[in-house]
TrEMBL record:
The keyword ATP-binding applies. Residues 2-238 form the ABC transporter domain. Keywords: ATP-binding, Nucleotide-binding, Transport. This is ABC transporter ATP-binding protein. GO terms for molecular function: ATP binding; ATP hydrolysis activity.
Amino acid sequence: MITVNNVYKSFADLKVLNDISITFEAGKTNLIIGQSGSGKTVLLKSIIGLHEVDSGSIFYNDRNFTAMNLKGRKEIRKEMGMVFQGGALFDSMTVEENVLFPLNMFSNSSEKEKKERANFCLNRVNIQNSNHLFPAEISGGMQKRVAIARAIALNPKYLFCDEPNSGLDPVTAILIDNLILEITKEYNITTIINTHDMNSVMEIGEKIIFISKGNKVWEGTKDGIFDTDNEDLNNFVFASELYKKIKKIS
Ligand SMILES: Nc1ncnc2c1ncn2[C@@H]1O[C@H](COP(=O)(O)OP(=O)(O)OP(=O)(O)O)[C@@H](O)[C@H]1O
């Protein structure tokens, strides 16, 4: 579980996060949604410690991450997996080397064990016979799967995904979403996903948090999202013609 308590964050005069409090539960896909510029990435980066918050606190289970020194944070970082926008694989490394990277950084296992673990993770995301290929030689969907394999290499307790299916066709996007959902359940991970994508919300959103102009204005389940009176959320959800039609039908 990750708990965000009364977090504020500004850049000079720009107030980006305003009194944000959220509980992200383990074994669930927690989706942060909101318009471009609403503060989703700043929130995610604050949670993982890439931004220092101005005030408030972030707890990993009962551990106060905000109050920790670098050494303490490093221990918690070992428990985090990350899938960034665009996959963010290292272009100069092969598929296998990409997945070995966190193992080489943080694990004391033998070379043989690390290789076995990398191959287990690649198998888990259905990547076979591609260990020697470079990211430029595989499709966007495969790149995302390799990024997920790399993110789970160290058996994370916490998984962070920033727009994990950006740039993918709708069918591949749903496969990636479901892979993240399955892994979350299988390993009881606290998973936080930033997304604009209403298809992801409907496919895998177990807990949904809607951020607007740096404020948390709504949280609930995907079923509740169509019944809300919140005008900002309605504008976001029904921005596409498809969802306007769904609203009319339901
Ligand atoms: N390092 C930074 N310095 C100054 N301003 C920043 C910084 N990072 C983000 N911002 C500003 O904070 C606001 C929120 O940005 P953020 O990237 O969190 O939005 P977002 O909701 O993730 O948008 P998108 O969905 O387009 O990625 C924006 O106005 C952005 O310009």
